[in-house]
Amino acid sequence: MAKLNKSTRQSVRIIGGQWRGRRLSFPAVEGLRPTSDRIRETLFNWLQPHLPGSVCLDLFSGSGALGFEAASRGADKVDMIELDLQAYKQLQTNKAMLTAEQCALFRQPAQQFLNQSAGTYDIVFLDPPFEANIWSEMADLLSQRNLLHKDSLVYLESNKHQKVNQLPDNWHLIKDKQAGDVKYCLFAMK
To answer: What is the DSSP string of 56-122?
Structure first.
């Protein structure tokens, strides 16, 4: 993989809701790959009945495409977690540009956030850098820390060649698709 020029800016657009068509800039940070428009369109069609009034967690925010899209479509609260300083600063800029008061930004490791978090989430976006291979660890923390309730939904995105092992027993796969090299799934708690 070619080394990314960190000064290069890219953008992704919000595809629905009150900020439909608005562009979000994001830095070219290694491992940051926004969820494509095509995948987000499908995902948010799946989630639309559950979004209004929901409390969401975008655990590896990156470009903010998932978290800001959820807020645009009616989520009451979205916690957005990002460790990379450049990406975090751009999330702050995008939040201000959208006046997205329902979005709370946190710059810390995902594990640390989950260990300190209280309350529960209705929808969780679990889309870490593929090479980190930490889906199981994050899923366990979400369950062990009681951050999910019986009606929670968890979106998980991975490379189609990676096997996501050892998800908690109470996670029930309800939707899954593939687009190019990306596999994406929606889980409900049972």
So the answer is: EEETT-TT-HHHHHHHHTT-SEEEEE---HHHHHHHHHHHHHHT-TTEEEE-S-HHHHHHH--S-EE
Q: Once rounded to an integer, what is the mean pLDDT over residues 162-174? A: 87
Instruction: Output the six-digit token pair for 35.
Output: 């969820």
The helix/strand/coil state of 145 is: coil
Is residue 2 predicted with pLDDT exceeding 90?
Answer: no
Closest CA to 12 of 77, 68, 56: 68
Residue with tokens 């994406």: 184
Res 3 pLDDT > 60: no
The mean pLDDT value for 27-39 works out to 81
DSSP letter for each residue of 161-183: TS------TTEEEEEEEEETTEE
Domain ranges of the chain: 9-189
Per-residue confidence band for 9, with pLDDT thresholds at 50, 70 and 90 = low
Quick one: pLDDT band at residue 8, thresholds 50, 70, 90? low
What is the model's pLDDT at position 72?
98
CATH architecture under which domain 9-189 falls:
3-Layer(aba) Sandwich (3.40)
Residue 60: Cβ within 10 Å count: 23
Cβ atoms of residues 147 and 117 within 8 Å? yes
Sort strands 9-13 and 23-27 into parallel, antiparallel or unpaired: antiparallel
